[in-house]
Amino acid sequence: MSISFRRARFVTSAFELSQLLPDTGSEVAFAGRSNAGKSSAINCLTRQKNLCKTSKTPGRTQLINFFELDSRHRLVDLPGYGFARVSKKLRNHWDRVLSTFLLERQALKGLVIVVDIRRGITDLDQALIDMMGDTLPLHILLTKSDKLPRAAIQKTVASTQAQLIGTRQSVSTLSTLNRQGLEQLEQKCREWFEED
Ligand SMILES: Nc1nc2c(ncn2[C@@H]2O[C@H](COP(=O)(O)OP(=O)(O)O)[C@@H](O)[C@H]2O)c(=O)[nH]1
Ligand SMILES: [Mg+2]
Hints:
Layout: E1 9-14, E2 26-32, H1 38-46, E3 64-70, E4 73-77, H2 88-104, E5 108-116, H3 123-132, E6 138-143, H4 150-163, E7 169-174, H5 182-195
Parallel strand pairs: 2-4, 2-5, 5-6, 6-7
Antiparallel strand pairs: 1-3, 3-4
Magnesium ion binds at residues 38-39, 52, 61.
């Protein structure tokens, strides 16, 4: 069985837990601060320019978006965190929905945490990593690598690697501009889907 990322198509969006797709098959989800580059990473992985809406204005993706690769495999774009101009009510809503989704979803096989390589892992990313513990394999995707010179990239990769604890946690870089790192991301997602 070979998974084709190119065939991804949008299925549905969820605001509430009751709107999630049935908890069957296998999913890989993308989380991270708003504007980190989650949607761009999914577009890059699927070689589709506009599968996920990307935005120069942070805080726009406020839904859980499901993309189907085939009847058994999905990618999930999660709402970004850390956007200041969000009401407390909405923030609490997503804290509850996301923690339930991430900790209880049986279909979820791995979580990609998208991090702007210029910022590195922030407190909010760390809180997510801590919350996940060893419940799921995690991959830290340091994106926008085209924004930094090679030495700075290597330094951030090394310090990020040093911060990880579990054996099921890994790091790679990505530039959605020049596709540097795309193979590693694809490999990781395949590994998670195929472990199943
Ligand atoms: N230079 C560069 N810009 C990127 C990269 N990935 C994302 N961006 C830009 O970062 C902004 C936020 O990206 P988006 O994917 O919408 O972030 P999201 O909020 O995490 O989904 C957009 O302006 C993207 O064009 C990258 O690898 N390189
Ligand atoms: Mg987005």
